Amino acid sequence: MERQVYLGVDVGAESGRVMAGLWDGRRMDLAEVARFANGPVEIGGTLRWDPLRLWAEIRAGLAQASSRFGSAVVSVGVDTWALDYVLMSRSGEMLGLPFCYRDPSHRAAFHAASARVPRAEVFGRSGVQFMPINTLYQWIARHGRSPEVFAAAERFLMMPDWLNWCLCGSDTVEFTNATTTQFLDPVARRWSTELLERFGLPTHLLPGLVEPGTRLGPLRAEVAGSTGLGRVPVVAPATHDTGSAVVGVPSERTGHRDWAYISSGTWSLVGYEAAAPELSARALALNATNEGGVDGTWRVLKNVMGLWLVQRCRASFASHGGTSDYGALVAMAEGSPGLRSLVDPDDERFLNPPDMPSAIRDYCVETRQPVPATEAELVRCALDSLALKYASVLGQLEELAGTRFVVVHIVGGGARNGLLNQATADATGRPVLAGPTEATALGNLVWQARALGELDSLVGAREVVRSSSEVVRFEPRHDAAGRWAEARERFASLCGPRA
């Protein structure tokens, strides 16, 4: 067949890029077209995003793609991080700079909300785990601080949906990202207006929902002209980047519950694929979450702080003239003694500390452990702790799934980290299949191909992922089993019953 090109816009909390998927009917080969930095902006004691700069970078990347691939481009699709949103006025004006989920005001709103409405009720109406970063608590914080902004708002759009509005004028919210807000009913598959009303929040600005794989419309005429792409369709993939990443898991066992995934990046999303949301009392007690997937699937998972700890250590090292290269830091950590010092990655102090190395050292002092002194020791502490957290969470998820996971797939940028992959195999006692590192982009692109009729199912999409990517297998090391068993016990005592 004549080669088709799908364009995937993938924006994370640290960076974004425009990726091209070159489709020949069997493989989806990837080509990076453009890459740009992202990150929150501190202003007036708050953390915000700069969406206009993101849109300018995306538009420039699409123009580069047009110059490179011309009329072979057949569609465009966007995915981003979850939780954050834009409020729009009736005339289409953006009302204020969007808040970053790490803004400190969300913690107070989170604790106040927990006292106002029982957790069991919130979970029953949303199926989402309790974290201060959730959109629900962002709304509560902003509505209390700036009610005039909500009063002027006509429409709520999550970040990828706002980018779709920029691209084609769509004013809908895609389902997989909507499920992360903590105000979408997972059973009725609609906005949980009753829950918002319990918190005194407005519901009139909630837009319609669309499923992943929906054609949203052609590029706006001015975007089509300025980029040179013409009026190609904009397709909603799973717009939550984790949703696309899980589409990009190369599992041969789609439809089974005996494999798990870790989408490894700034956050680590640890979960399994299910046919229905898990809303049991035990899921509530374990603080599990339910996020919508493609083809009617659900992702039962828990969020783990992830490589954020290493990223912020790296930033601190660099600011003091130390090592700034990720690969070099991992190599140094590999030469440092393992399982010496451990932290709970999900402790609130690690959400956005002024200095991550200091936060890790303070934790070790408080818990009477050896205090990491060097860059290598700090990174090794973070990676060992992540592997042990993965093992703990997987054990909880196995309880919910009612089965033992026979293999763990690690996808995303963290799949490049061989030290963490091996530690995860050792900590969990089961094989780890690492890759593809570009699972999010692949998941985005193959779901666009599904929307345009090139693929017929999730099974078929994952066949394409397998044929288009490389996977590295890590086996648990039997000679290290005793040390990891002891470390799991020590880690559980640090984290408590919900480790």
Oligomer: single chain
- Gyration radius, to the nearest Å? 22 Å
Structural class: alpha/beta
* Superfamily (CATH H level) name of the largest domain: ATPase, nucleotide binding domain
List the keywords:
Nucleotidyltransferase, domain 5, 41% helix, alpha/beta, 2 domains
Describe the protein.
- The chain has 499 residues and is an alpha/beta fold.
- It folds into 2 domains: 4-241, 2-Layer Sandwich (Nucleotidyltransferase, domain 5); 251-435 and 469-499, Nucleotidyltransferase, domain 5 (2-Layer Sandwich).
- Helices cover 41% and strands 20% of the residues.
- It has helices at residues 51-69, 105-116, 119-126, 135-145, 147-152, 159-168, 175-178, 193-198, 221-227, 241-247, 281-285, 308-319, 326-334, 356-366, 375-401, 418-428, 439-451, 458-467, 481-495, and strands spanning 4-11, 15-23, 28-37, 41-43, 46-48, 73-80, 85-88, 155-158, 173-174, 184-185, 190-191, 209-210, 214-218, 233-236, 259-264, 268-274, 289-292, 298-304, 407-411, 432-434, 472-474.
- The strands form 6 sheets. A 7-stranded mixed β-sheet has the order 17-18-16-15-19-20-21, sandwiched between helices. Strands 3-2-1-6-14-13 form a 6-stranded mixed β-sheet, with helices on both faces.
- α16 (418-428) links the parallel β19 (407-411) and β20.
- The longest helix has 27 residues, at 375-401.
- The protein is globular and about 60 Å long.
- The mean pLDDT is 96.
